[in-house]
């Protein structure tokens, strides 16, 4: 998911990925739009559901700080665990 703050020209991204061993990792990235100096953080999460909850919390915090979710990206559009696991396995 990607949020942007038009007033400050900043972005924030959060992605939940499954590794080859079945563990889930939350990848977050943030910075100024158009700048190569953004930051990335990788955090292990206990489960897919825990990661989804953390993304919801991040989204709430971003909205409070004036960010908006980019068009076409919504929590409802996030893949289910089964769909996501299949797509990762085939990649």
What would you note in describing this structure?
- The protein contains two helices and five strands, in the order E-E-E-E-H-E-H.
- With 91 residues, the chain is of the alpha+beta class.
- A five-stranded antiparallel sheet has the order 4-3-2-1-5.
- The two termini are 19 Å apart.
Please name the defining characteristics of this protein.
disordered C terminus, alpha+beta, WGR domain-containing protein, single chain, YehF/YfeS-like_WGR, 34% strand, 91 residues, WGR_domain
Distance between the termini: 19 Å
> In percent terms, what proportion of residues is strand?
25-35%
Query: What series of H and E elements makes up the topology?
Result: EEEEHEH
Poorly predicted spans: 82-91
Number of domains: 1
Class based on secondary structure composition and strand pairing = alpha+beta
For the biggest β-sheet, the strand order reads: 4-3-2-1-5
Helical coverage, percent range: 25-40%
Strand segment count: 5
Question: From the alpha-carbon coordinates, what is the Rg to the nearest angstrom?
Answer: 14 Å
The main sheet comes to: 5 strands, antiparallel
Give the overall form.
globular
Q: How many helical stretches? A: 2
- pLDDT averaged residue by residue: 85
């Amino acid at each position: 998911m990607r949020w942007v703050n038009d007033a400050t020209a900043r972005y924030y991204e959060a992605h939940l990925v499954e590794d080859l061993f079945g563990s889930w990792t939350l990848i977050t990235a943030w910075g100024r739009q158009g700048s190569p100096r953004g930051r990335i953080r990788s955090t292990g999460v206990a489960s897919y559901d825990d990661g989804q909850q953390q993304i919801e919390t991040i989204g709430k915090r971003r909205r409070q700080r004036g960010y908006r979710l980019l068009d076409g990206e919504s929590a409802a559009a996030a893949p289910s665990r089964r769909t996501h696991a299949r797509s990762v396995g085939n990649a």
